[in-house]
């Protein structure tokens, strides 16, 4: 099966600090790739470089589009990249308020993404927004409420609806359960797992939480000081870690 995304020798430095050091990996259709590591490991920098939220110094990102074209994402125009992020890609941010427009209604947050891909019929937009609120377990009665009136878990579910309404093929997630209490995390993880399966999404998931990647990820990358120190099938990496850093990470989660 051909890959959906190829990251090749991606590097990003901040002065003398190498945040990403020649990172390479492949992502396949329908696959969830987890990236774990401590704060400062480079995992969030890597995700933002893939999304072109920040420029990388070297390397390339190759994406196989819905039209079966191989795009070098670094070399396409800025307008084409923006369109890609509105349609075939999505980004779920750790803090939902960064991924939502807090001064417009829940329905408008979802509707804006539909308008970005050309939908102009108000009735169709309302209908689809209502359907997606139901999909993420938010009552459609809340469609005309502002996100600021929602709980943190509801805001994160609304952000999911906003991202997924355009049916992207690739979703980048940065600590999607960060800052939520345990019961809310569990509900959100179940929802993400269900939506990924239903929509056949490919996902790159950055987290520091080993429990999250064990539940969601098919494959796993472990990063330290900007480098990949271990990668493989999630169960293999977590149950039989080879690198001392991976062993230490897993041991730390087992200490009560």
TrEMBL record:
<dbReference type="GO" id="GO:0015833">
    <property type="term" value="P:peptide transport"/>
</dbReference>
<feature type="domain" description="ABC transporter">
    <location>
        <begin position="5"/>
        <end position="250"/>
    </location>
</feature>
<keyword id="KW-0067">ATP-binding</keyword>
<dbReference type="InterPro" id="IPR003439">
    <property type="entry name" value="ABC_transporter-like_ATP-bd"/>
</dbReference>
<dbReference type="InterPro" id="IPR013563">
    <property type="entry name" value="Oligopep_ABC_C"/>
</dbReference>
<dbReference type="Pfam" id="PF08352">
    <property type="entry name" value="oligo_HPY"/>
</dbReference>
<protein>
    <submittedName>
        <fullName>Phosphonate C-P lyase system protein PhnK</fullName>
    </submittedName>
</protein>
<dbReference type="InterPro" id="IPR017871">
    <property type="entry name" value="ABC_transporter-like_CS"/>
</dbReference>
<keyword id="KW-0813">Transport</keyword>
<dbReference type="Pfam" id="PF00005">
    <property type="entry name" value="ABC_tran"/>
</dbReference>
<dbReference type="InterPro" id="IPR003593">
    <property type="entry name" value="AAA+_ATPase"/>
</dbReference>
<dbReference type="GO" id="GO:0005524">
    <property type="term" value="F:ATP binding"/>
</dbReference>
<dbReference type="InterPro" id="IPR027417">
    <property type="entry name" value="P-loop_NTPase"/>
</dbReference>
<dbReference type="GO" id="GO:0016887">
    <property type="term" value="F:ATP hydrolysis activity"/>
</dbReference>
<keyword id="KW-0547">Nucleotide-binding</keyword>
<keyword id="KW-0456">Lyase</keyword>
<dbReference type="GO" id="GO:0016829">
    <property type="term" value="F:lyase activity"/>
</dbReference>
<dbReference type="InterPro" id="IPR012700">
    <property type="entry name" value="PhnK"/>
</dbReference>
<dbReference type="GO" id="GO:0019700">
    <property type="term" value="P:organic phosphonate catabolic process"/>
</dbReference>
